[in-house]
Amino acid sequence: MWLQRLGASISGYALAPQTNPSLYRAARIDNFVASPIAEFCDIHDREALSSTFAATMPEIVIHMAAQPLVRVAFEQPLMTYSTNVMGTANVLAAAHECGSVRTIVAVTSDKCYDLREGGEPRKESDPLGGAEPYAASKAGAEFIAEGMRAMMTADPERGEGNTGLATARGGNMLGGGDWSRDRLMPDLVAGALGGQPVAIRNPDAVRPWQHVLDPLRGYFVLAQRLHQNAALFEGPWNFGPPASHAVPVRHIADAACALLDAGLTWRPDPAAHFPESRSLRLNSEKAAARLDWRSRLTLADALDWSVRWYKKFDTGADARVLMEADIDRYEALAVA
């Protein structure tokens, strides 16, 4: 929706919505996608990918398709590796083969870093890691992008028109319209609606929390700069919040419970869980210095906007109207 407001002609390629409700259907996102478009397809399908690129001839590709859930990665590691690593390879190869593509932003994850030692904020030059399947798949996607970038740069057939490829690593997202399983905000909202306490795994884990519109703006800025000068802006970029936003899960749970105003409580989940990193912080000084990008929303505002979205949707508000209102408010912050 935001890209359409900015004047882009948009084509999409994705799996069919996996949740009910889904933001795609609730906000009628298909209305924003130009023809010709792909049917719902899988990034494992190289033939469908190539056909879609040939039909749409995009200039800019934003790759966000992924298996995005940590617990699912433990339960289905091979599917996660296949989607996040080989799926990324398929998308980048199809984009490279399409003569129209000049800019690619591949979104990976802040969890691609080696988090086994120390809790200092990770910067783009720090080692990648993979102490659990999800993190390993995202580090793998970064390695695939690095190898593909080298191939694109060396391609003699492209000459002066080399494709710019950058990767983007956002923090832990808050915001309305997410109904995925085992995500903190959707679980809390479901608990409020059902009048049940919410079981939370790893309440003391520290994560860099931010509203989804902040990193999205970062991806747009990066795509624009990369399109203007691939050599100066290719490579990896962090889009994380200020240091003050890196707080334990329990902090977010407490604040969200208070905002939901439904007598909602949470408790630590007593069940055994797969191990996850205890602390993750991002250093986004590179994006601040070279892209003039910083988070606009405070953590309190990110929580307030998120909870308000779900409460209004539950009382019958239209998802598209809620999204438009959030974008309007967010854009107003630039001139406030």
Structure explained in plain terms:
The protein is globular and about 65 Å long. It has a single domain (2-332), classed as Rossmann fold, CATH 3.40.50.720. The protein contains 13 helices and nine strands. Strands 1-2-3-7 form a four-stranded parallel β-sheet, sandwiched between helices. It is 44% helix and 12% strand. The protein has helices spanning 2-5, 23-26, 46-56, 70-75, 77-97, 133-154, 184-194, 213-228, 230-233, 249-260, 285-291, 299-314, 319-332, and strands at residues 60-63, 103-107, 164-170, 172-174, 198-200, 206-211, 235-239, 246-248, 266-268. The longest helix is centred in the middle third of the chain and has 22 residues, at 133-154. Strand 2, helix 6 (133-154) and strand 3 form a beta-alpha-beta unit. With 336 residues, the chain is α/β, with parallel strands linked by helices.
Which structural traits does this protein have?
four-stranded parallel β-sheet, globular, 336 residues, Rossmann fold, three-stranded mixed β-sheet, 13 helices, alpha/beta, single chain
What is the ordering of alpha helices and beta strands?
HHHEHHEHEEHEEHHEEHEHHH
Quickly count the domains: 1
For the termini, the CA-CA separation is 23 Å
CATH topology: Rossmann fold
Helix share bin: 40-55%
Portion in strands: 5-15%
Strand arrangement across the biggest beta sheet: 1-2-3-7
Low-pLDDT sequence parts: none
Give the rounded overall mean pLDDT.
92
CATH homology superfamily name: NAD(P)-binding Rossmann-like Domain
Which CATH top level class fits? Alpha Beta
CA gyration radius, whole angstroms: 20 Å
The DSSP helix count reads: 13
